[in-house]
Amino acid sequence: MRSNDELIDYLKAIGVLKTTAIIEAFKAIDRGDFVRDRYRDEAYENYPLPIGNSQTISQPYTVAFMLELLQPEEDSLILDVGCGSCYTTALLAKIAKRGKVIGTEIDKELVEFCKNNLNKYNLNNIEIYHVNKLPPSYGEFDRILVSASAEKLPQELLSALKDNSRMVIPIQTSIFLIKKTHGKITTQEHYGFAFVKLR
């Protein structure tokens, strides 16, 4: 695929990209702006690409799949854990126009890469933190997206969910949708994914 539009058409055709707001975000945020220069020719292919320090920008299919599970809303307060290149961060910010996206990244070099990528867009509802824990000043979130694989469900993230909220997180080789409704936690498992490890 040679363009962002072709990538979007492909993701719609295979049935993974469905929600209007998420499709509009994919149109507004070009994956090519979030890859390393040496991989620019492969930016619109449906596979992950290295971004440095053994980290990757996720496969477009996987990003679309996770966002469709997450179902961010226009006024959501969203935590993006392991934001890496900030591709998902920018997509989330475009959807949550009246909300805010808090991105965390443990790798200092990737934080700089992420911020440089975000500078290509006029998004004023994003904060990026170089941390390996929940950022200061925020208690609970409407949505949490995790882009690296945990060994087990982190209790700290579970505790950071507001009521009537959602978290999408890879655990080992599955993607889990975690819902908190009236204080009750439910989980839905989707098998067969590969991610870098959550640090």
Short descriptors:
single chain; 199 residues; alpha/beta; 7-stranded mixed sheet; two-stranded antiparallel ribbon; 6 helices; 9 strands
Overview of this protein structure:
There is one protein chain. The model has no long low-confidence stretch (mean pLDDT 93). The strands form two sheets. This protein has a seven-stranded mixed β-sheet. The chain has a two-stranded antiparallel ribbon with strand order 1-2. The protein has 199 residues and is an alpha/beta fold. Helix 2 (20-28) crosses helix 4 (87-95). Helix content is 28%, strand content 27%. The protein starts with a helix and ends in an 8-residue tail after the last strand.
From the alpha-carbon coordinates, what is the Rg to the nearest angstrom? 15 Å
The percent of residues in helical segments reads 25-40%
The description of the largest β-sheet is: 7 strands, mixed
Spans of at least 5 consecutive residues with low confidence: none
Distance between the termini: 32 Å
- Helix/strand order: HHEEHEHEHEEHEEE
Strand content range: 25-35%
Instruction: Decide which structural class fits the backbone.
Output: alpha/beta
**Strand order in space, largest sheet:** 5-4-3-6-7-8-9
How many DSSP H or I helices? 6
Tell me, rounded to a whole number, the average pLDDT: 93
Shape: globular
Give me the count of strands: 9
